[in-house]
Structures are given as C-alpha cells and as structure tokens.
Amino acid sequence: MKFRAWHIIVAVVVILGLWGVTTYNGLLAADGNVTAKWANVESDYQRRFDLVPNLVSTVKGAANFEQETLTQITEARTKWMAGGSADNRVAAANQFESALSRLLVTVEAYPQLNATGAFRDLMTQLEGTENRINVSRKDYNDAVFSYNYKVRRFPSNLLAGLFGFSAKESFESAEGAENAPKVEF
User: Fold this and answer.
1) 183 close to 108: Cβ distance less than 8 angstroms
2) Domain spanning 19-162, CATH class
C-alpha cells in the first residue's frame, strides 16, 4: 500500500512538472510572438516616417504649403525616432496620423499636384504603406489577444503571475479616427 501511494505522488509531481514546463514555454512563445508582431508594426511605421518627408517635399515644391502641418509631421517623426516604449511610439504615430490627414486634405486643394508623376508615385507608396500598417496592427492585436488569453486563463494564470507574465495592451486607433478628414476647396 505504501509503495502504491509513493507511485501516485511521483506521477502527480511528474504531471504537474510537465504541465508547468509546457505552460511556461507556451507563455514564452506567445510573448515572443507579440514582440515579433510589434516589431512588424514598428517597421511599417518606420517606412511611413521615411516616406512622408519625401511627400512633404514634393507638396512644398508645388503648393503654398502649410508650415504648421510640416512642423507637426516633423515633430511626430522625431518623437517616433526617440520612441522608447510602445506607448510613446503609439502616441507619436497617432500624432503623425493626424498631421498626415491634414497634409492629404491640403493636397486635395491643389489638383495640379496630382498630375505630377513623382507625387502620384509617392501617394501609391503611401497607400501601400498604410495598408501594411493596417495589416501589422491587426496581426499585433491578434497576437496580443492570444497572449492575453493564455496569461489570464486558469490555471496558466497561476504560472503567468508567478513568472511575471502580465497582460499586454492592444493597439487602438486615436480618438476621432472614426471621422473622415474634411476636404474643402
């Protein structure tokens, strides 16, 4: 009888140990996936931040450009480059998106600008970049959802808390992003 109890205890310890290792490794993999997806978001934003100054230069050359918009784009790009935390980069991206909206509204007032080949090419690249950003944000949010599910789900939440895994924030659009920019001629 003693021998049988000892086997049961060993079996329970082995099962708990395997569960712990599997759960921990799953949390690490999910955390790594979130980090990789965030890197993709940052890469796409970097592409945008590198592309838009060329677009601004093209607009400046062909139109009476708003200096305030140029300043806001430059400041947002500088904040992005200084970056730091994901929250700071998201704030800089949101500021940049607001300034970019104003730039595109300004561009609408200059039909001769749309006829410029360089401008059209830059706008096509910008459209592609915006699509990439949208896909990257979605992939990031999907990865965060999966990670947060693992971190919060019982019983893996016990190990998550023990090893310092905590829920991550999803990427959310800036306030007012649901409103289209107003175009006036």
Assistant:
1) yes
2) mainly alpha
Where in the chain are the domains? 19-162
Q: How far apart are CA 102 and CA 104, in angstroms?
A: 5
**pLDDT one-digit tens code per residue, 46-105:** 887 777 777 767 666 555 555 666 677 777 777 777 777 777 777 777 777 777 777 776
User: What pLDDT was estimated at residue 141?
Assistant: 87
**DSSP states along the chain:** -HHHHHHHHHHHHHHHHHHHHHHHHHHHHHHHHHHHHHHHHHHHHHHHHHHHHHHHHHHHHHS---HHHHHHHHHHHHHHHH--SHHHHHHHHHHHHHHHHHHHHHHHT-HHHHT-HHHHHHHHHHHHHHHHHHHHHHHHHHHHHHHHHHHHSTTHHHHHHHTT----PPP-PPTTTTSPPP---
pTM exceeds 0.90 for this model: no
Residues 93 and 45: beta-carbon distance below 8 Å: yes
